[in-house]
Amino acid sequence: MSLSTVDLDVLTAIIALLSPSDARSLSLTTRALYPAAQRHALSTVVLDKPSKLSRAHEYLLADVPNRSHYIRKLTVTHQALNSPSDDNVDDPLSAFFVQSARLLADLLESTQLLTTISVASMEQIIRAEPRVWNALTALSFLTNVELKDAHAGVLSRLGEFRGPLRKLEFCGSPDSYMLPGKLPFSQLVKAWCAYPRLQHIGLDYVPKVDYDRERLSSCTPCQTVLNLDVSHSELPLSGMTDMLPNLRSLSILNTKDYSEDNAGKCWSRLARLDFRTQHGPSDSQHHWVITSRTRQLVLLHSVETDPNRYWNFRHFYASTVEDAQPVALCLSTCPSVGEDFWTGLVREGRRLRCLDIRLRAGWKCHKDVSEWLDKVPRFWTDSDLLYVRIFIRETDFLSRMNTSIPFREDDAAAMAYVKQTVSAHLLACVPTVRLIAIKLMNETSWWRAQQGGEGGPRHLVPISSDVGHHVETYLYSEEFEQSMVFDGECTTMSGHLY
Q1: Which residues of the chain carry a pLDDT beneath 50?
Q2: Angle at 166 between CA 206 and CA 300, to 5 degrees
Q3: What's the pTM?
Q4: Alpha-carbon gap, residue 205 to 420, rounded angstroms
Q5: Which of 197, 186, 247 is nearest to 219 (CA)?
Q6: Which residues does 274 contact at the CB level (< 8 Å), separation at least 6?
């Protein structure tokens, strides 16, 4: 059967499963496949070199609109706009940069069907070539926008997009903290309110803003926003609760809250709270206090390898779990074997049913992963855990484990041995567990706990990755949170799965 005889709709659906680069390769194999494959190949364009920008300009504009109208996602990096040989950092608007901005403006004026765009060096671009901003704001199908290296100039015009924006990311740069003046927080809120379909907000490298209560009092709350991602910023998180009242997901990375007059305020409808930082509480990165429940709590920290710094996190972990009362908890931890910490964690987390542990075997505050895997699960005997997941990222994990058989690090038998012994130990230590996942580096294995016949002992039954992920999704869902009951059965519209 020839591909040329396959129905066009079927062929298009098959090609849509390929990556743009694979689709580009496929388009060169036969003329029959060229039109459909080329459309998909051009749907996502990444310009990360000046040569790519100039070639894209030449190729796409040579046949307007038959080429440029295929583009749906466009990414333009800082490297694409600047000459590799230009060392004049004191003059960001060099002749090369201005010419690159003009090429970008030409491209944007011809790509009328763009839905997603990410552009770096925005503050300099709108100074070098105003046509870029005019073309961006004129795109009527644009839904996802990421503006990098942005500051006051971009912020003052952030509400001008005509497209039905659903996701808007305003990203400064590491140098933003050195720029004079403060960004008015009210301008951010007014920009968000300009888009009635906006659901996702991203803020990165936003320095301390001007939190003017009088101006904010005239702003309308953004009722549609459900997701907020904040990183490397100083923002009035507690004060933002009134502006984003329906927030369901909050991610915080290296962000400091300074709205002390709003202490204790928190979003009441959070389903997921993600705390990520590189510093401990002693560095004043965590004095925003959680005061409401959340279904899923993620505590991932890249702390220093000094054991004395690591132990400071015990109190933050425990108090955060007690305040948030999560159903699912994911945390990264040095493999300590402190009984007080682990028993306290499951005791304070009275709703805790899912525990996802990211073991950092490379930290200096431990010597033996085997000791952790042997001792810690015993502390969960009196818990109500239904799902336990262990993830060890490091490739040299075997060197930190005591195995009865000598294995090579890259031996598949070693991976299987560790997964089977760890999963069996979890089954024996946690009487309530129903689902177990063990991930070593990039490979994950799943098991379900099954009761033996006529009161026999429980045993593990391997399940597929698809089924494992499906059950995990259910255990993290609002549906499960409402009942907090899982009898080992999980179904979908297509039938019984678990």
Answers
A1: 89-90, 279-287, 303-307, 310-311, 492-497
A2: 50
A3: 0.85
A4: 44
A5: 186
A6: 249, 250, 251, 252, 298, 300
pLDDT score recorded for residue 262: 53
Task: Identify the residue whose tokens are 């497209």.
Answer: 163
C-alpha to C-alpha distance for 135 and 315, rounded to whole angstroms: 51
Q: Which residue, 185, 183, 196, is CA-closest to 219?
A: 185
User: Using CA atoms, how far apart are residues 219 and 292, in angstroms rounded to an integer?
Assistant: 25
Instruction: Say which residues have a Cβ less than 8 Å from residue 360's Cβ, sequence separation at least 6.
Output: 332, 333, 334, 335, 393, 394
pLDDT digits (tens, 9 = 90+) for 456-471: 789 999 999 999 999 9
pLDDT in tens, 74-129: 999 999 998 877 555 445 678 999 999 999 999 999 999 999 999 999 999 999 99
Would you kindly state where each structural domain of the chain is located, as residue ranges?
A: 275-498
Instruction: Pick the closest to residue 201 from 218, 215, 216, 221 (CA basis).
Output: 221
Q: Distance between CA atoms of 274 and 276, rounded to whole angstroms?
A: 6
**451/453 Cα distance (integer angstroms):** 7
Residue 290: which residues within 8 A CB-CB, separation 6 or more? Answer: 266, 273, 320, 323, 324
Q: Say if CB 176 and CB 122 are below 8 A apart.
A: no
Enumerate residues 6+ apart whose C-beta is below 8 A from 202.
Answer: 146, 167, 168, 169, 170, 171, 228, 229, 230
Contact between residue 280 and residue 316 where contact means Cβ atoms under 8 Å apart = yes
Residue that the structure tokens 């001007």 belong to? 210
Backbone angles phi and psi of 175, in degrees to 5: -85, 0
CA angle 254, 255, 258 (to 5 degrees): 150
Give residue for tokens 């194999």. 29
Contacts of 300 (CB under 8 A, 6+ apart): 274, 275, 276, 330, 331, 332, 358
